[in-house]
């Protein structure tokens, strides 16, 4: 999934990045950076995937 798709999926469930940040004891900017692919955090990635009801495959980069 792209960053925009992840953000949209979270919003459709009424979840904000700050909600993920609070669950992971991280800053909102860290969560934003993970979603955008600028930073890596397995803990945050797992929380987002679980919240969306998906697996970790949402973080795989698709070759074009």
Q: What features would you describe in this structure?
A:
The protein has 64 residues and is mainly α. It has four helices and no strands. Helix 2 packs across helix 3 (28-36) and helix 2 (17-24) crosses helix 4 (42-52). The longest helix has 11 residues, at 42-52.
Q: Main sheet, how many strands, which sense, barrel?
A: none
Distance between the termini: 13 Å
Averaged pLDDT: 93
Percent of residues in helical segments?
55-70%
Order of helices and strands: HHHH
* Radius of gyration computed on alpha carbons: 11 Å
Secondary structure tally: strands: 0
Shape: globular
Detail the poorly predicted runs: none
> By helix and strand content, what is the structural category?
mainly alpha
Strand percentage: under 5%
Total helices: the number is: 4
In brief:
This protein has 64 residues and is an all-alpha fold. It is built from 4 helices and no strands. The chain is globular, with a radius of gyration of 11 Å.
Strand and helix map with partners:
Elements: H1 3-12, H2 17-24, H3 28-36, H4 42-52
Helix pairs in contact: 2-3, 2-4
């Amino acid at each position: 999934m792209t960053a925009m798709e992840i953000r949209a999926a979270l919003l459709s469930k009424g979840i904000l990045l700050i909600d993920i940040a609070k669950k992971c004891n991280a800053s909102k900017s860290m969560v934003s950076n993970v979603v955008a692919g600028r930073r890596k955090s397995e803990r945050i990635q797992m929380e987002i995937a679980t919240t969306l009801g998906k697996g970790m495959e949402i973080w795989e980069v698709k070759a074009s």
